[in-house]
Amino acid sequence: MIRLLLADDQTLVRAGFRPILEGADGIEVVGEAADGAEAVRLTRLLRPDVVLMDIQMPGLDGLAATEQIAAGTAARVIILTTFGLDDYVYGALRAGASGFLVKDTEPAELIHGVRVVARGDALLAPSITRRLISEFTARAGQPDPGPRLSALTGREREVMALVAEGLSNDEIAARLVLSPATAKTHVSRIMTKTGVRDRAQLVILAYESGLTVPGWIGRA
């Protein structure tokens, strides 16, 4: 059972999402928060697996709340965004978000997104990240490989670059002619060696280190 916390200052938004999520097999909504501070408090108290977090809320906003949750709990955060809030997305990734959903997403996509993040994968929808990651990583300054990539093998660097393109383990396996289990093992080892918590953070590291160049996402 996936335990989920809803965090949005709009009662109608929470009321709209809750029945969709509770109607899905294997998902339980354990609480609701109307601001970032409450989201942090309830995450520590209720220990949800996933927090569905609005980016703009009164007091402590979703970005700051995400950073606190990612730093102090095992919960994974999905940011709720709109195309009018693009400037926040890169910061949310840096803060520890595991993915993004637009507020007008279809119910099936919402449920799928929660399940994807709950199992430890990143929810990096092409409709958001192919444009935004390229744009905002280009603003991040000169790439800095740093020490975290030095322990990676050549194959692991190749796999990490494909993760940054948004490929799943199965897609990585097909691209490199590996078994899905081997691709999954490579990704797990890369995360351990680099000290990141999920695939979203691997994407950030790939760009900031210069392993992946902005604009590569989405190319065949």
Automatic annotation (TrEMBL):
Family annotation (InterPro entries): CheY-like_superfamily, NreC/VraR/RcsB-like_REC, Sig_transdc_resp-reg_C-effctor, Sig_transdc_resp-reg_receiver, Tscrpt_reg_LuxR_C, WalR-like
Keyword Phosphoprotein: yes
Ranges for domain Response regulatory: 3-118
UniProt keyword Transcription present: yes
Domain HTH luxR-type positions: 145-210
Cleaved signal peptide residues: none
Name under which the protein is recorded: Response regulator transcription factor
Organism from which the protein derives: Streptomyces broussonetiae
